[in-house]
User: Fold this.
Amino acid sequence: MPFLRFPSCRRGYGVFSILIVLSIGLSVASAQDIHPNASSSFFPFLDLGYDARATAMGGAAVGMPNQLYGVMSNPSALAFVEKRQVLLGYRPVILDVQGTPLAYGMPLVDREGGNWGVGALHLLYMSFGTIQEPRDAGGNLLDISPGEYSVGGGISWAAKVLEEVSIGATIKGLYDKQYGLEGHVSGASSFSATGIATDLGAQYRVASDRLIVGIALRNIGLMLSTYGRDIEGELPLTGAIGFSYQP
Assistant:
């Protein structure tokens, strides 16, 4: 039963056409505007694939029937969760860079049986490891072990607005810490940065969910603090369009 009622569109072709037009428009508009200052973006881990499949598929992951994994790629996929789900993963990226995603989601149904969509909570920890045997500009071994880690967490909501179409949103907080920095700035041993962001997404599904078109715009937000130093930067805004078909 749809969460919201709209004028009837039995086969959804009108909605499909609208999503295709939006997809093309988003891809054209985003080609030049997204990542104009990539080198100054904070929390770059937000743009990494959250598992081997998502990394290999690139942006197509937003068009997959990921259900609870949608909190990491496209929140609108949550709308198709039909019962409580728990996600616990391990995500090696490269060398000693690794992450641990954790999520919990469930349908939101009141006592009268009213459908309020699907809600979820998620937490992601990313460790970037430590620098072994760090040395200064003169080649002298430093008695410190600099490193970095990031933590992100938030709340997601998704619902079907038509039988074939879902929308979703995630609000998340972000925290990054660099530690073991004695000598870089007098009297300082660590720095941290914080931010808040929103992810938006939509999916269109037909043929018993075998054909899926997904659109997602991630990391819309702002930095709340930037390591307490005179550093300017921004969140890694990302737009993605994905199509998937299962024979």
